[in-house]
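Fold it.
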Amino acid sequence: MNEEELTKLINDKGFTIADPVAFFNGMTSSEGVTVESVINELSELEEKIENSNKVEAQNFFDFLTGVGRNLWKIDSVVKKDNYFTTALGGSDFLNQLESATKNIVSTANEYSYCLNEINEDETRLANIKIEIDSLKNGNTFEDNTLKTVELLNEFQKISRSLDNKKQHLADLKKQFFEDFENKIKKYNVKLFLLCSPHNPIGRVWKEYELNKIIEICSKYKVFIVSDEVHCDFAWNSQHICLLKYDNYKDNIILCTSPTKSFNLAGLQISNIFIPSEFIRKKFQRELWNNGYSLINIMGMVACESAYKNGESWLNEIKKYILENIRYTDRFLKERLPKIKLIYPEGTYLLWLDFNELNLSDDVLESLLLDKAKIWLDGGKKFGKTGSGFQRLNVALPRKKLKYALESLERTFKNF
């Protein structure tokens, strides 16, 4: 059968071939794939699409798996009536997906706020102790009795508040993992995408958190793909690689890259670690079938050079970026207190909360672009719970960061 005849058969099924030449060449060069198998695959897919109103969110993984063995062919074909929206069950599915993620993102935001407040309280307590000690050791201790009492009262007040916040933080942790496990059960989840460190919240997951994630995923046989592209940017604690969990490594795919650490994104190079030989071979076969198995040679050279010779440079740039984060934090607290920084545990992408300004997302975007002349990443792209947030990249020269923050100040200081 030639390309024309194959195209006609596909069209008769109600599909349109996006790239007929690539589709035909890919099909004819793939071992064990026949015209009949393609048509049968598309027929099954069409039937699934027509019945998509009956497809529950928990069947989504099975749905993809069902067409996965010839996914490269499906990728080349576009359904005339918006294939993907229909195939995923339309707005009902998207609403279920939104509902499934909303609580987790909200909890993550609240957790970060609470953690920031705890860190600030603990810093203030330490400073109060220093002030009290200096009064005790000085010659004027009796003259400063009132000041000492005032400091002690403040110390007790902050301590009580700190205890409450720590309890709230513990409750949030419990709520997070209960919600996480309930979602896995409710939607029969088979694949979990972990972002570690987290983008855009900036969390660096603690060992007990990863332990709990592994425990829950192991209980329900959930496969994990761990995106650790920001792993070199953990500021106050050590990043923990998920592959340290040796007893679960065959159920983990680890994704890293030199692109964030060494600014090599334009060279399109990354690393994917797949301990399971069975899954690794399946992955390599899909790469080959999709025609995406060749790596940019310049990217390979740059990657090797960065990992071999870039450590000292990376250490210096991390110091510079960390000072950029501190500079941004001080600037906002002193000059734009209504714009709150969720202080990051990791990454150089800062999560800024503009909600206190009471602006709609459209108005906020317009002011940033048209008046401040700054293009940030709007929080809405991360879902409804990102409304009122903006993401700021501070991996840049401080002169440019200063200019951007001063432009923010000129735009929003009177709000």
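DSSP finds 15 helices and ten strands in the chain.
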